[in-house]
Amino acid sequence: MITVSDFPKYRGTMEYVCLGCQARFDIRELYYTCPHCGGVFILEDTSFDSLLEFPPSYWQGLFDKRAATRVTALRGVLRFYELMAPVMDEEDIVYLGEGHTPMVAANDALTELVGVPFYYKNDGQNPSASFKDRGMACAFSYLKHLVRVNDWDSVLTVCASTGDTSAAAALYAAYVGGPIKSVVILPKGKVTPQQLAQPLGSGATVIEVPGVFDDCMKVVEHLADNYRVALLNSKNAWRILGQESYAFEVAQWFGWDTYRKCVFVPIGNAGNVTAIMGGFLKLKKLGIIRSLPRIFGVQSQHADPVFQYYNEADPAKREFRPVSVTPSAAQAAMIGNPVSFPRVAHFAKEYEKIGGPGSFQVLQVTEQAIVEGMLVANRHGHISCTQGGECLAGLLKAKELGLIEPSEVAVLDATAHHLKFIGFQEMYFEDSFPAAYGVKSDPKYVNRPRSIMTEAEKAQLSPEAYTAKAAEAIVESLGLARK
User: Fold this and answer.
1) CA–CA dist 172, 468 (Å, integer)
2) pLDDT digits 0-9 by tens, 57-87
């Protein structure tokens, strides 16, 4: 009888594997790019096949039991310990409440409007209000493990960000404390005030540089290649492992039945979509799920290098080319040269080998559709960010192209909380988007406060008269009928 109150006994044998030259490296050092060829890494548990000794029902039951555990180390994303980073001890694992984010079904009105039943997975309900906490929980747990076993007295973490990564990195660094300090590098003027406030509030050193995310990423890569810093962007393969938990949670929500399910994911730096594919592939290999859900990556036409790559029908003619980005409301996805693209190519090939043609596809959507996707979702009771709006735009595009049937069920990734991107809603309501966005307000989506009285008018009235006058104005505005 397995007791889920105990920390797992299984320990994997993990290695960095370069997707470029296939070289392998020991995990006792922090690697981000291959020292031989400059390629990116995935992490592989060479003992993974030993998990096949247990039937799928064992793993389903174990993970379902852990969903209710009181063991802190297993309450978050690491409840899928054996599938993710099975090399750490209980004392290493950092838990701030990440994971277990809700799946909220679209109501009847929104389902009828879209024509396909779907859920939003609200990853904005993670601790720092974005999906990045999944990856940071794993990355910081492993970093804490290295600090402990190596007795390091000083570790400087560094990341490039458009907001969400910096917020998560700063939060987890502040919690772990001790020798770990956080530095975040942001593109000046390209981060919302709400997102800028988060790393500042967590005490991180915040450095602004001119340019866009891709420029910041080059600076961070230079630092990681030449100085002793811990890089926390999605080049960090431990972060990718943490983000696999999204796939595990989606499968678990549906009772491990992913047949005729479709998952829509904004691509951005391509870490999340590759993690989700990797997670579902692990579940399929162990028989925990019988079929792979289809994956739709979504990109704005203002930052669409992965779409451009897969838009070439002949795989032999495909060639990845970075693109120059133009302003996007989906700020976290405004990346023209995603560092995880080699992972996309790797996992997409494996995914289609098992799931068949079309099991992984990439869609391109407009900025207009992204912003209005967010507004429409939130008018029906969701808390979608602009990236969640991008996913709804992707679902509508897939339906328009005949790529999804009304009998299928879609899951949309709302990567962050709506409030982080409230400025874009305000810009839409005021019809003040700069021309570069290509977004114009439609009056049917605009909602503004109604003013019924000025301060000067109120000052001329007694308290009793003010109450009556204000109520009278509201009655007239709303057309209320007397009892």
Assistant:
1) 52
2) 999 999 999 999 999 999 999 999 999 999 9
